[in-house]
Amino acid sequence: MSIQPKNFGFGEDETMLRDSARKFFSDNCSADKIHNLVATDPNIHRSIDCVWDKNLWQQIVELGWTAVCVSESAGGIGMPAVAAVALAEEVGKAAFPSPLLSTFNATFVLNHCQSEAATAALGEIAEGKATTLAITNQEGSWDASATDVSVNNDGSLSGTAYFVQDAKKVAQLVVSAASDKGVGLYLVDTTAGGVQMVADGIIDLTRDQAHIEFSNASAIELAAPGTGNLAIDQAMPAILSIVSADMVGAGEWLLQTTVEYAKTRVQFDRPLGFFQAVKHPLVNVMLDIDRSKSLAYNAACAYDTDPDNALRLAHMAKSQAGDMAVFSASRAVQFHGGIGFTWECFVHLFFKRQMHNQVLFGDAKYHRALLADMVMGAAA
Fold first, then answer.
1. pLDDT tens by residue, 276-294
2. N or C: which end of the chain has fewer CB within 10 A?
3. Strands 172-179 and 182-189
4. For the segment 259-276, what is each residue's pLDDT rounded down to a tens digit?
5. Cβ–Cβ under 8 Å, residues 310 and 303
6. Do 132 and 99 touch, CB atoms closer than 8 A?
7. Which parts of the sequence belong to the Acyl-CoA dehydrogenase/oxidase N-terminal domain (predicted)?
């Protein structure tokens, strides 16, 4: 077993990156600004729109965030996965609508494709070209062997990819597709002919999701047939770490906001925080967040330094973060009382983001089941 570096490899460069992100979101993405951006219409029958600030996205690109985990040889910065996890935590804390986390996930997959086309795509990401994964089938499985997309004789793609995150914010897709030689990964431009996006109605107002239909869509091979599954499997610990860190950040916002409310809201001549029925569960939320954060950073560090154990640790991180997401969100709504479930209360933005994240790439029970299989298999 490899020995992980001190503090999960989180050094001065990663600290500076996190602090700059924290200041950026503090200056540009307060909860009221995000609410005014994405939650202008409470009508449940409203149209499915993709609302985000492209100017802020351009500023992020100029800050170099998309290049963080792209290797220097491909034109990136080449930082470890914990750097992306730190950014994901800050993104979650701001509930920031952008394709950044989806682009990180695509980056990790591309890093394992080992092809000139993948290196070129990574270079485009480093320059700010938003990218997302289109690897999930209708049943919700991201096992590449179960893809609903196939490769035609001329190399084009036909079929449908489901549950595609930030689909309308990105410029290109990393698609898993099957042929008689096996499953490979392919790069598809979202504006290419034969590509049709069908928006999904989801509860998370800070994201968009779609299923994408391909009809003889032009594609560039990133990973040869038969190697697509391997690239996805190798990247999965980092992907799960990113989603877990997003939930950690949202949980931190929910906790801080609820604690402040409990200090100022008076009931029976006492602040709400005086009562044990309020303060004890909030302490439990804090402990859950701390556990989730440690596990997310541990899994990301293992992805770089201890790959043999990375997936096991990532299952632990996603499981804990998924439970924490539900607990932190439900306590925040409950302890805000009658206003907690209203549209005007900002809590609902983070509640909905937590609910979306906790099922993204599998909920807590799913990952505990996989973890149990790994442990029992090892014991046997």
1. 777 898 899 999 999 999 9
2. C
3. antiparallel
4. 988 888 667 667 666 567
5. yes
6. yes
7. 12-128
The β-bridge partners of 184 are: 177
- The β-bridge partners of 172 are 131, 189
90, 21 in Cβ contact below 8 A? yes
Q: Residue type at 310?
A: A
For 70, the token pair is 């792209």
Which of the following CATH numbers is that of domain 229-379: 1.20.140.10, 3.30.70.1140, 1.10.1740.10, 1.40.20.10? 1.20.140.10
Tokens of 180: 């008689």
Instruction: Report the length, in residues, of the chain.
Output: 380
Cα torsion 142, 171, 98, 62: sign? positive
Total-model pTM: 0.95
CB 84 within 8 A of CB 104: yes
DSSP-assigned letters across all residues of 208-274: -EEEEEEEEE--EEEE-TT-HHHHHHHHHHHHHHHHHHHHHHHHHHHHHHHHHHHHH-EETTEEGGG
**C-alpha to C-alpha distance for 88 and 292, rounded to whole angstroms:** 13
> Do 149 and 159 touch, CB atoms closer than 8 A?
yes
Sole residue written with tokens 């990156």 = 17
Nearest to 202 by CA among 234, 177, 167: 167
Which residue, 130, 248, 273, is CA-closest to 189?
130
